[in-house]
Task: inverse folding
RNA sequence: GUGGCUGUAGCUCAAUGGUAGAGCUCCGGUUUGUGGUACCGGCUGUUGCGGGUUCGAGCCCCGUCAGCCACCCCA
């Protein structure tokens, strides 16, 4: 039996990496004053079908009928859930609301490197502030997040755009905004599609492709100026690049949209997000009309990226080394002292040390090897010297004999943490 | 959903159509209270699965499933 395609088993070494990821996700979000929330993994499929909430994602929905005849879906993203939760209870929270989530999402699509059917996503959303100051806060958070993994300006960049610029463009050319989504979809794919094909698709809009290309190539997005000034003040300007070509697939974005992408290799977008000022109103039938901006990062792409960037890889490695399975290993040199070893192990464990010892009689040499393998920084030999024991620092083989009763204090002072 | 490439031991990979191998990992040992190196030994396969061609298929053909890559799109 294997896992289903696009799903994965997380062995302890995989889970350690996940802990590293989620730890930094949470730390960064908290530094920006965000608090963690979560919602159901399974939702009514209707949540994703409601006007404006879907886009291309609908075709990737894990959707089925449950035993109560309800049409349900595994969440492909958490933004709709967030929107519903905020809309239903936002009066209980001061604005703006800063919430983040670390949760599993599902999308039924062809598996590929950095793209799975079940993945962990980090989501940050700021609700209740429509200014570019809020946009900047979220973009800055994303930049700091990627930096915390050891990634620098040579490794990634944030492409910034603004859908309002396109809306103005459409107004100028007399196109109704009802068709904006359709139009932006064409723009999104323009650079990859044959010229003639694009012309054909654009025909109903009456806008020549050349006009669009000219608009993009000006590179001017006045709506982004306050955001760029804000990031400049934070010293983060170097990470962002205005680019009208970024449109994003999700239908509910209304203003600024952005995506983080790797500058080397051919990884896809690392993270993506934007402003969705109408989603809450749409999902709550107007009960909560709150502007919002947010982004999502997937674990799969990030893990691949870390593997490719040496600085990021070594940062991860030092974390993993700091989290060994064991800190202290009790070497039972004389079986007649096993009960003393058990008492000592218990005492150390209660005070918080990660302690191991052989479950059966084993040669001393092998026990040291086990201590080594499991990452313990110290071995404690329990045998003929009792009530004294020998503490040995494995890194430099320094050994010291002391009364077992003082061992916990000794470890506290000398630190069993890795060197 | 479309196209291309690949599928052999837990992992990485060998094997002119002729009896399936190596390295690593893992386990045990190198005479019994001190260490990831060294040496010795041991375990594991219906060659992804199902058909077909052939005296004979890991190898050739078809199908299927899975993985990788490129589209599509996205985290």
Result:
């Amino acid at each position: 039996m294997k896992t289903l395609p696009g799903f994965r088993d997380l062995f302890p070494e995989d889970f350690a990496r996940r802990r590293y990821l989620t730890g930094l996700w949470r730390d960064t979000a908290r530094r920006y004053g965000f608090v963690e929330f979560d919602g159901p993994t399974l939702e009514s499929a209707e949540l994703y079908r409601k006007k404006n909430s879907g886009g291309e994602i609908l075709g990737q929905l894990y959707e089925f009928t449950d035993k109560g005849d309800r049409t349900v879906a595994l969440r492909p993203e958490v933004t709709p859930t967030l929107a519903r939760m905020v809309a239903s209870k936002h009066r209980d929270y001061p604005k703006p609301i800063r919430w983040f989530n670390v949760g599993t999402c599902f999308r039924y699509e062809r598996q590929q490197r950095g793209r799975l059917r079940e993945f962990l996503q980090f989501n940050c959303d700021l609700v209740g502030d429509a200014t570019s100051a809020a946009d900047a806060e979220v973009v800055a958070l994303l930049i700091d997040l990627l930096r915390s993994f050891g990634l620098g300006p040579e490794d990634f960049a944030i492409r910034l755009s603004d859908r309002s610029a396109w809306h103005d463009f459409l107004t100028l050319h007399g196109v109704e905004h009802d068709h904006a989504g359709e139009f932006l979809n064409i723009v999104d794919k323009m650079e990859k599609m044959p010229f003639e094909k694009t012309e054909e698709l654009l025909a109903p809009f009456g806008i020549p492709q050349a006009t669009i290309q000219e608009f993009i190539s000006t590179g001017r997005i006045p709506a982004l100026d306050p955001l760029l000034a804000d990031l400049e003040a934070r010293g983060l300007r170097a990470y962002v690049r205005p680019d009208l070509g970024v449109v994003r697939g999700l239908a509910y974005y209304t203003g600024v949209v952005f995506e983080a992408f790797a500058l080397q290799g051919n990884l896809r977008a690392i993270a993506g997000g934007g402003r969705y000022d109408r989603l809450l109103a749409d999902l709550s039938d107007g009960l909560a009309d709150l502007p919002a901006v947010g982004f999502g990062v997937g674990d799969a792409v990030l893990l691949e990226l870390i593997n490719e960037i040496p600085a990021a890889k070594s940062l991860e490695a030092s974390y993993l080394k700091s989290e060994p399975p064991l800190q202290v290993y009790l070497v039972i040199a004389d079986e007649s002292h096993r009960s003393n070893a058990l008492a000592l192990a218990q005492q150390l464990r209660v005070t918080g040390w990660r302690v191991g010892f052989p479950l059966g009689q084993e040669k001393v040499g092998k026990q040291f090897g086990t201590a080594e393998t499991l990452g313990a920084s110290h071995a404690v030999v329990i045998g003929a010297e009792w009530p004294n024991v020998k503490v040995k620092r494995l890194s430099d083989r320094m050994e010291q004999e002391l009364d077992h009763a003082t061992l916990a204090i000794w470890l506290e002072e000398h630190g069993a943490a890795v060197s």
